[in-house]
Design brief:
The chain is an alpha+beta fold and 360 residues long. It folds into 2 domains: 155 residues, no CATH class; 163 residues, Heat Shock Protein 90 (2-Layer Sandwich), CATH 3.30.565. The chain contains 9 helices and 9 strands. Strands 2, 4, 5, 6, 7 and 8 form a 6-stranded mixed beta sheet that branches. A 3-stranded antiparallel beta sheet has the order 1-3-9. The chain is rod-shaped, with a radius of gyration of 40 Å. The protein starts with a helix and ends with a strand.
């Protein structure tokens, strides 16, 4: 309760300060010129009514401003407010003050002098309220204009940034046309030289060439790839790691049938497989890592499970899964889910994405 009252005072402090200053100024000035001050209840009744009229008129102007009947509405509203204000003021005076008391000739002290005074007083506060409404309208319109201008400037900055990034991407693409081509030629040459003398090394070179070509080509404006292509590259990566690690690398891949035509963002499976190798323990042949890919209704699910490596293999930033989460969020939004947990020495990762099949 106290917090609510404090919040109200804080939100309306400017209004409270304004009315306090106004009442002290007007009441003080009137009392000095008249040579005497009225009773407290007189001030309370009159200012409570006048301030209420101020906010009521502002509220009516704000409520019906969208009707575009400013002049007609304004005149009718003023007449209605004056018609209500006069008898209301007379009643409050009769009940709570010693002004305008009833007499034989008047009802609640209402006469020509009282009507003229009340009309002047009500019109004064109506004019002030109208000015306040126009001021608020002006400030709101200026704020909207500033927001529009700010949005326009932000759009200009975004456009210039996008154009700059496009230019950088185009330059990078031109450089990439040379470097990968040279690299693949070298790898092909190495494969030709060693395939007869060392068959295993030749297969590693072929897998590495395929893997690197896929990674580079899919990074050039490729939005989605076939699941079959991604799985093929996972097998290339697994073949390389099995040659390099031997018995220390044990992983099983389970893939549902008839899902090869599904499309997904590139390098998703490769990132998951690489994460299992970098941060997991795949040395136990009886408790190998498992990568499972299956479809349920309109959802493709990718699950990985592996032992948690107790020893720190090498210095790493561990940004693979973080970047993958961001890529999935940016592309699929809330339609996709990625969950990970550690349980009884095992690391579990589950990715669920909506199915997209390739067009025939």
């Amino acid at each position: 309760m106290i917090e609510s009252v404090w919040y109200w005072f804080k939100s309306n402090r400017l209004h409270l300060i304004f009315w306090t200053i106004y009442i002290m100024y007007e009441a003080g000035l009137t009392g000095i010129f008249a040579g005497r001050f009225g009773k407290a209840e007189n001030y309370i009744v009159h200012y409570a009514l006048n301030i209420s009229l101020f906010y009521f008129h502002y509220w009516m102007m704000k409520k019906f401003a969208s009707k575009h009947l400013y002049l007609l509405f304004f005149l009718l509203l003023i007449l209605l407010e004056i018609a209500i204000y006069i008898p209301f003021l007379a009643t409050l005076n009769h009940l709570f003050t010693d002004y305008n008391q009833s007499s034989i000739r008047t009802f609640f002290g209402i006469n020509h002098k009282f009507i003229a005074s009340a009309t002047y007083r009500s019109i004064f506060f109506i004019i002030v309220s109208t000015g306040y409404w126009f001021l608020r309208q002006y400030l709101n319109e200026r704020k909207k204009a500033e927001e529009i201008e700010q949005d326009r400037l932000q759009q200009i900055v975004k456009k210039e940034t996008a154009e700059k990034n496009l230019l950088l991407a185009q330059n990078a693409h031109l450089r990439a046309q040379v470097n990968p081509h040279f690299l693949f030629n070298v790898l092909t040459f190495i494969h030709r030289r060693i395939r007869k003398s060392d068959k295993i090394a030749g297969e590693v070179v072929i897998s590495l060439t395929s893997l690197m070509r896929y990674a580079i080509e899919t990074s050039q404006n490729t939005e989605m790839v076939l699941l079959s292509e991604e799985i093929s590259q996972v097998y290339d990566l697994v073949n390389i790691l099995r040659v390099l690690k031997g018995d220390e690398f044990n992983i099983e891949i389970k893939v549902d049938h008839n899902i090869s035509e599904i499309k997904l963002i590139p390098l998703l499976l490769l990132t998951v497989t690489e994460n299992m190798y970098k941060h997991g323990d795949l040395s136990d042949v009886n408790n190998c890592g498992v990568l499972t890919i299956y479809q349920s209704n309109n959802t493709l699910t990718i699950e990985s499970k592996n032992l948690i490596c107790e020893k720190k293999k090498s210095l790493t930033l561990k940004t693979g899964l973080k970047n993958l989460r961001e890529r999935i969020r940016d592309f699929y939004g809330t339609r996709a889910e990625i969950e990970s947990l550690e349980h009884e020495g095992m690391f579990h990762l589950t990715i669920s994405i909506p199915v997209r099949k390739s067009k025939a």
